Amino acid sequence: MHRVLGLKCTGCGREFEARGMHYVCDRCGKNLDVVYDYGAISKRLTRAALAANTDFSVWRYWDLYPLEDRSTIMPLAIGWSPLYRADALARRLGIPTLFLKDDGKNPSASFKDRASSVAIAKARELGFDKICGASTGNAASSTACLCASIGVSPIIFVPETAPRAKIAQLLIFGAKVFAVKGSYDDAFDLCLEATEEYGWYNRNTGYNPYTREGKKSCSFEICEQLNWEVPDLVFVPVGDGNIISGIWKGFRDLQGVGLIHGLPRLVAVQSEKSSAVADAVNGDGVIRPVKATTIADSISVDLPRDGDMAVRAVRESKGMAVTVRDEEILDTIPLLARTCGIFAEPAGATSVAGLRKLIAGGKLSGSERVVCLITGNGLKDVDTAMKIAGKTISIEPDLDSLKKAMAGMNL
Prior knowledge:
There is one protein chain. The chain has a domain at 83-109 and 211-387: Rossmann fold (3-Layer(aba) Sandwich), CATH 3.40.50. The chain contains 16 helices and 13 strands. It has helices spanning 38-42, 47-51, 87-93, 112-125, 138-148, 164-172, 184-198, 210-215, 217-225, 242-256, 276-281, 307-316, 326-340, 346-360, 382-388, 399-406; strands at residues 4-9, 15-16, 32-36, 83-85, 97-102, 131-134, 155-159, 176-180, 201-202, 233-237, 265-271, 320-324, 369-374. Helix 5 packs parallel to helix 6 (164-172) and helix 10 packs across helix 12.
Protein backbone atom coordinates (compact mmCIF):
# COMPACT_ATOMS: atom_id res chain seq x y z
CA MET A 1 0.00 0.00 0.00
CA HIS A 2 1.92 3.02 -1.24
CA ARG A 3 -0.28 5.44 0.76
CA VAL A 4 0.24 3.66 4.09
CA LEU A 5 3.61 3.77 5.81
CA GLY A 6 2.56 1.29 8.50
CA LEU A 7 0.97 1.18 11.95
CA LYS A 8 2.36 2.70 15.13
CA CYS A 9 1.61 1.97 18.76
CA THR A 10 0.00 4.97 20.47
CA GLY A 11 1.71 3.99 23.71
CA CYS A 12 5.31 2.84 23.25
CA GLY A 13 5.71 3.94 19.62
CA ARG A 14 6.52 0.49 18.26
CA GLU A 15 6.02 0.28 14.49
CA PHE A 16 4.21 -2.47 12.57
CA GLU A 17 4.06 -3.27 8.87
CA ALA A 18 0.77 -2.67 7.10
CA ARG A 19 0.60 -6.26 5.88
CA GLY A 20 -1.57 -8.73 7.80
CA MET A 21 -3.90 -7.97 10.70
CA HIS A 22 -2.58 -6.26 13.80
CA TYR A 23 -4.97 -5.30 16.59
CA VAL A 24 -3.12 -3.83 19.57
CA CYS A 25 0.56 -3.59 20.41
CA ASP A 26 1.94 -6.98 21.48
CA ARG A 27 4.50 -5.22 23.66
CA CYS A 28 2.45 -2.75 25.74
CA GLY A 29 -1.16 -3.57 24.78
CA LYS A 30 -2.00 -0.04 23.60
CA ASN A 31 -4.00 0.77 20.48
CA LEU A 32 -2.43 1.11 17.05
CA ASP A 33 -2.71 4.04 14.66
CA VAL A 34 -2.40 3.94 10.87
CA VAL A 35 0.35 6.22 9.51
CA TYR A 36 0.00 7.71 6.02
CA ASP A 37 2.31 9.22 3.44
CA TYR A 38 0.64 12.63 3.29
CA GLY A 39 2.96 13.83 0.57
CA ALA A 40 1.91 11.06 -1.80
CA ILE A 41 -1.78 11.47 -0.95
CA SER A 42 -1.77 15.25 -1.42
CA LYS A 43 -0.89 14.82 -5.10
CA ARG A 44 -4.18 13.00 -5.70
CA LEU A 45 -6.57 14.23 -3.03
CA THR A 46 -7.15 17.90 -3.80
CA ARG A 47 -10.09 20.26 -3.48
CA ALA A 48 -10.44 20.23 -7.26
CA ALA A 49 -10.47 16.43 -7.37
CA LEU A 50 -13.12 16.27 -4.68
CA ALA A 51 -15.23 18.94 -6.39
CA ALA A 52 -15.30 16.72 -9.50
CA ASN A 53 -16.08 13.55 -7.52
CA THR A 54 -19.73 12.45 -7.78
CA ASP A 55 -19.43 9.68 -5.16
CA PHE A 56 -21.08 11.29 -2.15
CA SER A 57 -20.27 8.63 0.42
CA VAL A 58 -17.39 7.78 2.73
CA TRP A 59 -15.58 6.32 -0.27
CA ARG A 60 -14.95 9.71 -1.90
CA TYR A 61 -11.99 9.91 0.52
CA TRP A 62 -10.53 6.57 -0.59
CA ASP A 63 -6.95 7.85 -0.62
CA LEU A 64 -7.08 8.38 3.15
CA TYR A 65 -8.08 4.80 3.97
CA PRO A 66 -5.80 1.79 4.50
CA LEU A 67 -7.44 -0.19 1.69
CA GLU A 68 -6.34 -1.36 -1.75
CA ASP A 69 -9.23 -3.35 -3.21
CA ARG A 70 -12.36 -1.39 -4.08
CA SER A 71 -14.27 -4.62 -4.67
CA THR A 72 -14.40 -5.11 -0.89
CA ILE A 73 -16.64 -2.10 -0.22
CA MET A 74 -20.32 -2.64 0.46
CA PRO A 75 -23.09 -1.32 -1.81
CA LEU A 76 -24.92 0.74 0.82
CA ALA A 77 -24.86 4.56 0.86
CA ILE A 78 -22.71 5.25 3.91
CA GLY A 79 -21.69 8.71 5.05
CA TRP A 80 -22.19 12.16 3.53
CA SER A 81 -24.86 12.70 6.17
CA PRO A 82 -26.54 16.10 6.22
CA LEU A 83 -24.93 19.02 8.02
CA TYR A 84 -27.86 21.19 9.00
CA ARG A 85 -27.59 24.83 9.92
CA ALA A 86 -29.68 24.96 13.10
CA ASP A 87 -30.63 28.65 13.25
CA ALA A 88 -33.74 28.21 15.40
CA LEU A 89 -31.86 26.23 18.02
CA ALA A 90 -28.91 28.64 17.86
CA ARG A 91 -31.24 31.55 18.63
CA ARG A 92 -32.78 29.57 21.47
CA LEU A 93 -29.32 28.94 22.93
CA GLY A 94 -28.01 32.43 22.26
CA ILE A 95 -25.13 31.57 19.92
CA PRO A 96 -24.56 32.87 16.38
CA THR A 97 -23.77 29.73 14.39
CA LEU A 98 -24.68 26.10 15.04
CA PHE A 99 -24.53 23.11 12.73
CA LEU A 100 -25.83 19.62 13.45
CA LYS A 101 -24.25 16.62 11.72
CA ASP A 102 -27.07 14.06 11.59
CA ASP A 103 -25.52 10.60 11.35
CA GLY A 104 -28.83 8.97 12.13
CA LYS A 105 -29.26 9.06 8.34
CA ASN A 106 -26.77 6.22 7.82
CA PRO A 107 -28.02 2.75 6.75
CA SER A 108 -28.26 1.32 10.27
CA ALA A 109 -29.25 4.77 11.64
CA SER A 110 -26.02 5.49 13.49
CA PHE A 111 -22.54 6.96 13.19
CA LYS A 112 -21.06 3.48 13.64
CA ASP A 113 -21.59 2.64 9.97
CA ARG A 114 -18.53 4.75 9.27
CA ALA A 115 -16.35 2.51 11.41
CA SER A 116 -17.91 -0.68 10.12
CA SER A 117 -17.45 0.34 6.48
CA VAL A 118 -13.66 0.45 6.63
CA ALA A 119 -13.22 -2.31 9.21
CA ILE A 120 -15.37 -4.79 7.29
CA ALA A 121 -13.78 -3.86 3.95
CA LYS A 122 -10.40 -4.55 5.57
CA ALA A 123 -11.63 -7.95 6.81
CA ARG A 124 -12.65 -8.91 3.27
CA GLU A 125 -9.38 -7.64 1.85
CA LEU A 126 -7.50 -9.85 4.32
CA GLY A 127 -9.62 -12.89 3.47
CA PHE A 128 -11.60 -13.35 6.70
CA ASP A 129 -14.97 -15.09 6.38
CA LYS A 130 -16.03 -14.79 10.04
CA ILE A 131 -16.54 -11.36 11.60
CA CYS A 132 -17.39 -10.78 15.23
CA GLY A 133 -17.93 -7.80 17.48
CA ALA A 134 -19.16 -6.62 20.87
CA SER A 135 -21.33 -3.58 21.35
CA THR A 136 -23.97 -1.87 23.43
CA GLY A 137 -26.07 -1.99 20.27
CA ASN A 138 -25.13 0.51 17.58
CA ALA A 139 -21.77 -0.92 16.52
CA ALA A 140 -23.37 -4.35 16.51
CA SER A 141 -26.39 -3.36 14.42
CA SER A 142 -24.07 -1.49 12.07
CA THR A 143 -21.88 -4.56 11.66
CA ALA A 144 -24.93 -6.74 11.05
CA CYS A 145 -26.42 -4.29 8.54
CA LEU A 146 -23.28 -3.82 6.48
CA CYS A 147 -22.39 -7.52 6.62
CA ALA A 148 -25.89 -8.44 5.43
CA SER A 149 -25.37 -6.26 2.36
CA ILE A 150 -22.44 -8.46 1.31
CA GLY A 151 -23.95 -11.80 2.33
CA VAL A 152 -22.08 -12.29 5.61
CA SER A 153 -23.64 -13.29 8.94
CA PRO A 154 -21.54 -11.85 11.81
CA ILE A 155 -21.26 -13.14 15.37
CA ILE A 156 -22.34 -10.46 17.83
CA PHE A 157 -22.03 -10.12 21.60
CA VAL A 158 -24.25 -7.58 23.38
CA PRO A 159 -25.23 -7.01 27.00
CA GLU A 160 -28.69 -8.48 27.50
CA THR A 161 -29.89 -5.02 28.60
CA ALA A 162 -29.36 -3.56 25.10
CA PRO A 163 -32.48 -1.72 23.80
CA ARG A 164 -35.02 -3.94 22.03
CA ALA A 165 -34.88 -1.90 18.83
CA LYS A 166 -31.18 -2.58 18.48
CA ILE A 167 -31.65 -6.28 19.19
CA ALA A 168 -34.39 -6.31 16.54
CA GLN A 169 -31.98 -4.83 14.01
CA LEU A 170 -29.38 -7.47 14.78
CA LEU A 171 -31.80 -10.34 14.37
CA ILE A 172 -33.54 -9.01 11.28
CA PHE A 173 -30.17 -8.57 9.55
CA GLY A 174 -29.38 -12.22 10.27
CA ALA A 175 -26.60 -11.87 12.84
CA LYS A 176 -25.84 -14.63 15.33
CA VAL A 177 -26.50 -12.81 18.58
CA PHE A 178 -25.24 -13.74 22.04
CA ALA A 179 -26.91 -11.70 24.80
CA VAL A 180 -24.35 -11.64 27.59
CA LYS A 181 -25.56 -11.56 31.18
CA GLY A 182 -23.40 -8.63 32.14
CA SER A 183 -22.16 -5.23 30.99
CA TYR A 184 -20.79 -4.03 27.66
CA ASP A 185 -17.31 -4.56 29.08
CA ASP A 186 -18.17 -8.20 29.86
CA ALA A 187 -19.40 -8.69 26.29
CA PHE A 188 -16.27 -7.00 24.94
CA ASP A 189 -13.92 -9.24 26.92
CA LEU A 190 -15.79 -12.40 25.91
CA CYS A 191 -15.60 -11.34 22.28
CA LEU A 192 -11.82 -10.98 22.59
CA GLU A 193 -11.57 -14.48 24.04
CA ALA A 194 -13.68 -15.87 21.21
CA THR A 195 -11.50 -14.10 18.64
CA GLU A 196 -8.42 -15.79 20.01
CA GLU A 197 -10.11 -19.17 20.35
CA TYR A 198 -11.68 -19.34 16.89
CA GLY A 199 -9.55 -17.03 14.76
CA TRP A 200 -12.42 -14.70 13.85
CA TYR A 201 -11.89 -11.15 12.62
CA ASN A 202 -12.64 -8.77 15.49
CA ARG A 203 -14.33 -5.47 14.69
CA ASN A 204 -14.38 -4.22 18.28
CA THR A 205 -14.12 -0.48 18.76
CA GLY A 206 -10.93 0.54 20.54
CA TYR A 207 -9.28 -2.76 19.62
CA ASN A 208 -9.41 -2.91 15.83
CA PRO A 209 -7.35 0.07 14.54
CA TYR A 210 -9.45 0.38 11.39
CA THR A 211 -12.61 1.54 13.20
CA ARG A 212 -10.92 4.90 13.83
CA GLU A 213 -10.06 5.08 10.13
CA GLY A 214 -13.75 4.88 9.24
CA LYS A 215 -14.94 7.29 11.90
CA LYS A 216 -12.58 10.04 10.75
CA SER A 217 -14.62 10.38 7.53
CA CYS A 218 -17.07 12.55 9.49
CA SER A 219 -14.41 15.24 9.86
CA PHE A 220 -13.68 15.14 6.13
CA GLU A 221 -17.34 15.76 5.38
CA ILE A 222 -17.75 18.55 7.91
CA CYS A 223 -14.91 20.53 6.35
CA GLU A 224 -16.00 19.94 2.78
CA GLN A 225 -19.65 20.75 3.59
CA LEU A 226 -18.49 23.99 5.22
CA ASN A 227 -16.56 24.88 2.05
CA TRP A 228 -13.27 24.06 3.82
CA GLU A 229 -13.87 26.48 6.68
CA VAL A 230 -12.91 24.69 9.88
CA PRO A 231 -15.41 25.10 12.75
CA ASP A 232 -14.24 26.53 16.05
CA LEU A 233 -15.75 23.83 18.25
CA VAL A 234 -16.94 20.28 17.60
CA PHE A 235 -19.04 18.64 20.31
CA VAL A 236 -18.77 14.83 20.40
CA PRO A 237 -20.70 12.28 22.51
CA VAL A 238 -18.09 10.05 24.15
CA GLY A 239 -18.28 6.49 25.45
CA ASP A 240 -15.29 4.29 24.63
CA GLY A 241 -13.49 7.29 23.11
CA ASN A 242 -13.12 5.97 19.56
CA ILE A 243 -15.40 8.51 17.87
CA ILE A 244 -13.60 11.53 19.26
CA SER A 245 -10.17 10.01 18.54
CA GLY A 246 -11.38 9.35 14.99
CA ILE A 247 -12.73 12.88 14.60
CA TRP A 248 -9.34 14.28 15.65
CA LYS A 249 -7.51 11.90 13.30
CA GLY A 250 -9.71 13.12 10.44
CA PHE A 251 -8.96 16.79 11.00
CA ARG A 252 -5.25 16.06 11.33
CA ASP A 253 -5.32 14.03 8.11
CA LEU A 254 -6.89 16.93 6.23
CA GLN A 255 -4.28 19.28 7.59
CA GLY A 256 -1.55 16.78 6.70
CA VAL A 257 -2.54 16.69 3.03
CA GLY A 258 -3.03 20.45 2.89
CA LEU A 259 -6.82 20.59 2.52
CA ILE A 260 -7.29 22.69 5.66
CA HIS A 261 -4.96 25.07 7.48
CA GLY A 262 -6.35 25.09 10.99
CA LEU A 263 -7.86 22.70 13.52
CA PRO A 264 -10.97 22.90 15.71
CA ARG A 265 -11.19 22.48 19.44
CA LEU A 266 -12.95 19.27 20.45
CA VAL A 267 -15.43 19.01 23.31
CA ALA A 268 -15.93 15.55 24.78
CA VAL A 269 -19.41 15.19 26.29
CA GLN A 270 -20.22 12.34 28.64
CA SER A 271 -22.99 11.42 31.02
CA GLU A 272 -22.14 11.90 34.68
CA LYS A 273 -22.98 8.21 34.97
CA SER A 274 -20.28 7.16 32.47
CA SER A 275 -17.53 9.73 32.87
CA ALA A 276 -14.15 7.99 32.64
CA VAL A 277 -12.82 10.09 29.75
CA ALA A 278 -14.05 13.40 31.17
CA ASP A 279 -12.61 12.49 34.57
CA ALA A 280 -9.22 11.87 32.96
CA VAL A 281 -9.28 15.05 30.84
CA ASN A 282 -10.23 17.14 33.85
CA GLY A 283 -7.80 15.29 36.12
CA ASP A 284 -4.38 13.75 35.66
CA GLY A 285 -5.00 12.31 32.20
CA VAL A 286 -5.15 8.70 33.39
CA ILE A 287 -8.15 6.58 32.38
CA ARG A 288 -9.70 4.79 35.32
CA PRO A 289 -12.77 2.54 35.08
CA VAL A 290 -16.13 3.67 36.41
CA LYS A 291 -19.41 1.86 36.97
CA ALA A 292 -21.46 3.12 34.04
CA THR A 293 -25.22 3.28 34.52
CA THR A 294 -26.31 6.01 32.12
CA ILE A 295 -29.56 5.78 30.19
CA ALA A 296 -27.54 6.72 27.08
CA ASP A 297 -26.64 3.10 26.39
CA SER A 298 -24.47 3.82 23.35
CA ILE A 299 -21.98 5.71 25.52
CA SER A 300 -22.35 3.61 28.66
CA VAL A 301 -18.85 2.22 29.20
CA ASP A 302 -17.00 1.21 32.36
CA LEU A 303 -13.50 1.19 30.82
CA PRO A 304 -13.12 3.22 27.59
CA ARG A 305 -11.09 1.04 25.21
CA ASP A 306 -9.83 4.05 23.28
CA GLY A 307 -9.75 6.31 26.29
CA ASP A 308 -6.09 7.28 26.11
CA MET A 309 -6.47 8.49 22.53
CA ALA A 310 -9.69 10.31 23.44
CA VAL A 311 -7.88 12.22 26.18
CA ARG A 312 -5.04 12.97 23.77
CA ALA A 313 -7.49 14.25 21.14
CA VAL A 314 -9.14 16.67 23.56
CA ARG A 315 -5.87 17.96 24.98
CA GLU A 316 -4.05 18.26 21.65
CA SER A 317 -7.00 20.22 20.24
CA LYS A 318 -6.94 22.52 23.29
CA GLY A 319 -10.52 21.44 23.88
CA MET A 320 -12.39 20.43 26.99
CA ALA A 321 -14.58 17.73 28.51
CA VAL A 322 -17.95 18.20 30.15
CA THR A 323 -20.36 15.85 31.88
CA VAL A 324 -24.14 16.17 31.86
CA ARG A 325 -26.88 14.59 33.91
CA ASP A 326 -29.09 11.97 32.28
CA GLU A 327 -32.02 14.32 32.88
CA GLU A 328 -30.26 16.97 30.79
CA ILE A 329 -29.74 14.45 27.98
CA LEU A 330 -33.39 13.43 28.03
CA ASP A 331 -34.54 17.06 28.08
CA THR A 332 -32.46 17.73 24.96
CA ILE A 333 -34.16 15.03 22.86
CA PRO A 334 -37.52 16.86 22.46
CA LEU A 335 -35.69 20.19 22.14
CA LEU A 336 -33.81 18.86 19.11
CA ALA A 337 -36.95 17.33 17.67
CA ARG A 338 -39.12 20.40 18.09
CA THR A 339 -36.63 23.04 16.96
CA CYS A 340 -34.71 21.12 14.28
CA GLY A 341 -36.81 18.14 13.26
CA ILE A 342 -34.07 15.72 14.34
CA PHE A 343 -35.03 12.70 16.44
CA ALA A 344 -31.94 11.61 18.38
CA GLU A 345 -31.38 8.69 20.69
CA PRO A 346 -30.02 9.65 24.15
CA ALA A 347 -26.35 9.27 23.17
CA GLY A 348 -26.97 11.23 19.98
CA ALA A 349 -28.44 14.15 21.90
CA THR A 350 -25.61 14.24 24.44
CA SER A 351 -23.45 16.58 22.35
CA VAL A 352 -26.16 19.26 22.36
CA ALA A 353 -26.79 18.69 26.07
CA GLY A 354 -23.11 19.46 26.63
CA LEU A 355 -23.34 22.60 24.51
CA ARG A 356 -26.34 23.79 26.52
CA LYS A 357 -24.49 23.24 29.78
CA LEU A 358 -21.38 25.15 28.70
CA ILE A 359 -23.50 28.06 27.44
CA ALA A 360 -25.48 28.17 30.68
CA GLY A 361 -22.23 28.16 32.64
CA GLY A 362 -20.75 31.01 30.61
CA LYS A 363 -17.93 28.79 29.33
CA LEU A 364 -18.21 29.90 25.67
CA SER A 365 -17.38 33.31 24.26
CA GLY A 366 -20.57 33.43 22.22
CA SER A 367 -18.81 33.94 18.88
CA GLU A 368 -17.80 30.37 18.03
CA ARG A 369 -18.93 28.41 14.98
CA VAL A 370 -20.14 25.18 16.56
CA VAL A 371 -20.79 21.71 15.14
CA CYS A 372 -22.56 19.07 17.24
CA LEU A 373 -22.51 15.42 16.21
CA ILE A 374 -25.87 13.62 16.39
CA THR A 375 -24.65 10.05 16.41
CA GLY A 376 -27.83 7.97 16.37
CA ASN A 377 -31.53 8.06 15.50
CA GLY A 378 -34.18 8.13 18.22
CA LEU A 379 -35.92 5.02 16.86
CA LYS A 380 -32.95 3.12 18.28
CA ASP A 381 -34.47 3.50 21.74
CA VAL A 382 -38.22 4.03 21.45
CA ASP A 383 -38.89 2.96 25.02
CA THR A 384 -36.89 5.89 26.37
CA ALA A 385 -38.43 8.30 23.88
CA MET A 386 -41.94 7.33 24.92
CA LYS A 387 -41.18 8.22 28.54
CA ILE A 388 -40.47 11.85 27.60
CA ALA A 389 -42.51 12.44 24.44
CA GLY A 390 -45.87 13.22 26.06
CA LYS A 391 -49.17 11.39 25.79
CA THR A 392 -51.85 10.93 23.19
CA ILE A 393 -55.39 12.26 23.76
CA SER A 394 -57.99 9.51 23.61
CA ILE A 395 -61.33 10.53 22.05
CA GLU A 396 -64.43 8.96 20.52
CA PRO A 397 -64.68 9.01 16.69
CA ASP A 398 -67.03 12.03 16.54
CA LEU A 399 -66.70 15.81 16.35
CA ASP A 400 -68.32 16.48 19.76
CA SER A 401 -65.70 14.38 21.43
CA LEU A 402 -63.00 16.26 19.57
CA LYS A 403 -64.47 19.63 20.60
CA LYS A 404 -64.61 18.61 24.27
CA ALA A 405 -61.00 17.41 24.17
CA MET A 406 -59.92 20.65 22.50
CA ALA A 407 -61.61 22.88 25.10
CA GLY A 408 -58.96 24.97 26.74
CA MET A 409 -56.29 23.95 24.27
CA ASN A 410 -54.30 26.63 22.50
CA LEU A 411 -54.70 25.36 18.94
